[in-house]
Amino acid sequence: MMDSLVLLWVAFCLFFFLFKAQRPKNFPPGPFSLPIFGNLLQLNLENPINDLKKLRLRYGNVYSICFGSRPVVVLNGVHAVKEALVNQSVEFAGRPQDLMINHVTKNEGVVLLNHGPVWRDVRRFSLMTLRNFGLGKQSMEERILGEVSYITSHLEKCAGKSMDPQNLFHKAASNIITTVLFGTRYEHEDKFLQLFIQLFKELSKIANGPWAMIYDTFPVVRNLPLPFQKAFQKFEVLKDAVKDLISQHKMSWVPRQPRDLLDCYLDEMEKREDDSSFNESQLVTLLLDLHFAGTDTTSNTLLTTFLYLMTHPDVQERCQKEIDQVLGEKLQASFEDRHRMPYTQAMIHEAQRVANTVPLSVFHTTTKDTQLMGYDIPKGTLIIPNLSSVLNEESQWKFPHDFNPSNFLNDEGEFVKPEAFMPFSTGPRMCLGEGLARMELFLVLVTLLRHFQFIWPEDAGEPDYSTIFGATMSPKPYRMDVRLRNKRECVIQSQNTTE
Predict the structure, then answer these.
(1) Helix (H) and strand (E) counts for the chain?
(2) Which residues bind heme (predicted)?
(3) Annotated binding site
């Protein structure tokens, strides 16, 4: 009997030491990890943000956890994040190549491409082409304002009633980027548009959800018929839809006369016949990358903004007074008007801060052996920039836990942007869609606040500010009452403010 117990104990010890995750020498500290599971059982897989916050309090701004046997470094606070992603941008510019999201996308596109010549080439092409088609220019303003007119028409029909805004802003943001990518705008009832939005939402939830964590932690289960297989199926549906669109586009494509980014890529493929980094498979994923980057963060930020404006009517009213004063009799806003609207600018940035739309950024890896904050980080280490910790860091914000535009105003009431404002990450791998998102948020919000008042419905109960965790955060579904503002009152208000 004793011999059996001793053998059992020896077997357990061997199992423990063989499968226990080993942290490298002088690696960032972290919690005890279990064999095989690592720290998986210590995290709330539905939303690990609070658990990561607790670990920061215990281990500091740079600590480690384990995905199975794989050590992972979590960066917290503005100093650690900037030191890695800005000051050591090349060393921390890699992307992991073996997570579920990589296998879903086959490491194509631009967002998940590993650091190197191909990534630089594709990113340069994407940014240059986006700029050529209006990013930061008046032509892009016209695209955005054209789509805003459809939102306005819809809200006018809903005036005096309660309505569900969940898909309205997703459809609008999707249409704005599709005019750049495909040269096409879709009616809000179009099945293609609705398919894209629905699948993007579902993929976002899966990508940072519990089943993705299980896939990443336990390679042995990856071929089993578990729920993470839905991500592969849904992405294939999206790819097939884009392939059909490319085939249709080719029928009217005239080389060197580009109508949109898709035409530009086809030109580039023709020019680089021997360059394997520009091919049709890569094109499909690039279009999906850019579509997602130009849609999900913006639409979820708009949903968050209106949730807080309804429940902070004083902030909404102050924005409307400023908008009325600046625009006066002007027919529509322009992006340049933001320089004369410090409070509205502050409100929009504060909404981005509390929306915390991409809380864990996109995971990085180290491209070489390096050091960070006194710790040794080996090449290939998975890095999680906890942007949530930056956007709520108590030492960086006047009101870190409240919705308050004063976080972006100085004592003179001028708009200021603290260095801790990085909702789209920072460094060379920051989100491609940031410039478009900034313009969209300003023009959409200013136009809608000028024409409508948004009210929390009386029968809606207490507002719920908690979020749905995923690759991008979204507020929980809500309804809002929409009322037309009296235009004559707006003009009088503007005149009174001026006087």
Answers:
(1) 18, 11
(2) 431
(3) 431
CA 220 vs CA 36, 135, 211, 216, 231: distances in Å: 11, 45, 14, 10, 18
The stretches in the chain having pLDDT less than 50 are 1-20, 488-499
Contact 72, 381 (CB under 8 A): yes
Alpha carbon separation from 272 to 268, 269, 278 (Å, rounded): 6, 5, 7
Which residue do the tokens 């090349």 mark? 90
> Which of helix, strand or coil describes residue 34?
strand
Q: What is the pLDDT of residue 175?
A: 95
Burial class (CB in 10 A: 0-12, 13-18, 19+), 19: middle
Q: What is the per-residue pLDDT for 472?
A: 86
Helix, strand, coil percentages in the chain from 3-state DSSP, rounded to 5: 55, 10, 35
With CA atoms as reference, report the closest residue to 444 among 43, 148, 41.
148
- Indicate whether this model's pTM tops 0.85: yes
Please enumerate, by residue number, every residue annotated as part of a binding site for heme. 431
**Side chain identity, residue 344:** T
Task: Give the fold, CATH level 3, of 19-498.
Answer: Cytochrome p450 (1.10.630)
Buried b (16+ CB within 10 A) or exposed e, 172-181: bbbbbbbbbb
Query: By C-alpha distance, which of 148, 44, 165 is closest to 475?
Result: 165
Domain locations in the chain as residue ranges: 19-498
Residue 21: per-residue pLDDT: 53
**Contacts with 178 (C-beta within 8 Å, 6 or more apart), sequence order:** 184, 185, 186, 193, 291
